[in-house]
């Protein structure tokens, strides 16, 4: 069995084909950690609906992605500056939703920081504010987290130092070898996706990752222009990622899948599926 550590099954690209995707997951022996993103709770509510319907293969996470924080604020203010009252109200709303459904939610995500999209210091402060609220909930209820850290790995690691989180995943890790070493030393998991199939840079990072901290993902419905013919990610992509891990680490496939499954279960603090 394999676990896709990070996928957006509530994305519009999957609408209407959920049964097909779930059928593929079941056929391939894959369970999927489905993360949510938005302020208006569409993906969060949908995640719980899907997990209720397909509880054998879907592991629901709920969180607020840094991209959605900024998109919402740009819509509210034509000058692009933060409407702090609006952000506070919506943040309170999603926190109430998470805590009200905490027994059904397996983890908090997708959350994190992204310096690539910020225009000024106020925007980044807003990201940090939301990130800290999400981490506080994860700490309080003992939930794992799935973290976005584009151009912000140092900021994420620094923020995490103030919290005691049972399972931390830096999803789609794209930091340096130095940052990877720090993450490893703190016991943070890192995940690799389909880019690992062809990217020498990712293969080098994987080779330098502690084996008991490696996870894999598709980040679907992302499309991969340099492999898979630019197709939308589907569960079968994860098999290719597992093979890429095996080849990069010089392991046989069965040993690799066993390692990846054990790592995933430990990250999720789950004893059975």
From TrEMBL:
Name the UniProt record assigns to this protein: Putative TatD-like deoxyribonuclease
Source organism of the structure: Candidatus Nitrosocaldus cavascurensis
Pfam families in UniProt: TatD_DNase
Keywords: Hydrolase, Metal-binding
Domain of life: Archaea
One Gene Ontology molecular-function label: metal ion binding
Ligand binding (a divalent metal cation 1): 6, 8, 110, 219
Similarity comment: Belongs to the metallo-dependent hydrolases superfamily. TatD-type hydrolase family.
PANTHER family recorded: HYDROLASE OF PHP SUPERFAMILY-RELATED PROTEIN, HYDROLASE, TATD FAMILY
InterPro entries to which the protein is assigned, alphabetical: DNase_TatD-rel_CS, Metal_Hydrolase, TatD-like
Ranges that cross the membrane: none
The keyword Transport is annotated on this UniProt entry: no
Binding residue positions for a divalent metal cation 2: 148, 171
């Amino acid at each position: 069995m394999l676990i896709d550590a990070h996928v957006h099954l509530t994305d519009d690209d999957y609408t209407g084909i959920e049964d097909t995707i779930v059928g593929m997951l079941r056929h391939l022996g894959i369970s999927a950690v489905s993360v949510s993103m938005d302020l208006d709770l569409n993906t969060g509510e949908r995640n719980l609906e899907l997990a209720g319907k397909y509880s054998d293969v879907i592991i629901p996470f709920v969180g607020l992605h840094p991209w959605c924080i900024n998109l919402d604020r740009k819509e509210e203010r034509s000058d692009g500056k933060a409407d702090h009252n609006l952000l506070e109200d919506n943040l309170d709303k999603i926190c109430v939703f998470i805590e009200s459904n905490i027994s059904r939610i397996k983890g908090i995500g997708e959350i994190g920081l992204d310096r690539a999209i910020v225009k000024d210091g106020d925007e980044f402060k807003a990201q940090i504010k939301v990130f800290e609220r999400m981490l506080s909930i994860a700490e309080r209820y003992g939930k794992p987290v799935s973290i976005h850290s584009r151009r912000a790995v140092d900021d994420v690691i620094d923020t995490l130092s103030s919290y005691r989180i049972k399972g931390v995943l830096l999803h789609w890790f794209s930091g340096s070898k130095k940052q990877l070493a720090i993450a490893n030393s703190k016991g943070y998991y890192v995940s690799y996706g389909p880019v690992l199939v062809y990217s020498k840079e990712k293969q080098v990072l994987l080779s330098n990752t502690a084996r008991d901290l490696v996870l894999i993902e598709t980040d679907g419905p992302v499309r991969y222009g340099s492999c898979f013919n630019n197709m939308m990610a589907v569960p079968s992509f994860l098999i290719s990622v597992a093979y890429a891990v095996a080849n990069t680490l010089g392991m046989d496939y069965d040993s690799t899948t066993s390692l990846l499954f054990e790592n995933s279960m430990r990250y999720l603090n789950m004893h059975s599926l």
